[in-house]
From TrEMBL:
GO biological process, one term: lipid metabolic process
Record carries keyword Mitochondrion: no
Protein name: Cytochrome P450
Swiss-Prot/TrEMBL cofactor(s): heme
UniProt-annotated binding residues for heme: C81
Keyword Lipid biosynthesis in record: no
This protein's UniProt keywords: Heme, Iron, Metal-binding, Monooxygenase, Oxidoreductase
Molecular function GO labels: heme binding; iron ion binding; monooxygenase activity; oxidoreductase activity, acting on paired donors, with incorporation or reduction of molecular oxygen
PANTHER family cross-referenced by the UniProt entry: CYTOCHROME P450
Family membership: Belongs to the cytochrome P450 family.
Organism: Artemisia annua (Sweet wormwood)
InterPro entries tied to this protein: Cyt_P450, Cyt_P450_CS, Cyt_P450_E_grp-IV, Cyt_P450_sf
Length: 136
């Protein structure tokens, strides 16, 4: 899933039992779709599909990361994405720079934004924005 891959899986090397009691036999495949997991109400609450950046903040407004086993975008455990921290840093730097210089609006405010699930996750038809320079 690293680098935006929206689904992933593994194959059982030996017979095993998952935490929920499901029995796997050697060679069974286990797959998960991170896109769907990020929108499951039993994981994230009834507002799971709402864009709520504040869900990542604690009561004091400080960033509170979720368990990598819950927010699976960069994998978890011994196979966690090596570029995760670099990716977070890049996103923060670019976001700060863009928001400092521009205000963004949807080019067509009536268009509903939907996703197109492929090997990597795309916005169906692209996300057309208007970047309006901020004046000082």
């Amino acid at each position: 899933m690293c680098m935006g891959v929206s689904k992933d899986g593994r194959v059982a090397e030996t017979d095993d039992i998952l935490p929920d009691g499901y029995e796997l036999k050697k060679g069974d495949g286990v797959y998960y779709i991170s896109y769907a997991m990020g929108r499951m109400s039993h994981i994230w609450g009834d507002d799971a599909e709402d864009f709520k950046p504040e869900r990542w903040l604690n009561d004091n407004g400080v960033f509170q990361p979720e368990s990598p086993f819950k927010f699976i975008a960069f994998h978890a455990g011994p196979r966690i994405c090596l570029g995760r921290d670099f990716s977070y840093r890049q996103m923060k730097i670019m976001t700060i720079a863009l928001l400092h210089f521009f205000q963004f609006n949807l080019a067509d405010k009536t268009r509903k934004v939907t996703y197109k699930t492929m090997f990597t996750l795309h916005i169906d038809g692209g996300l057309h924005l208007l970047a309006i320079p901020r004046t000082k």
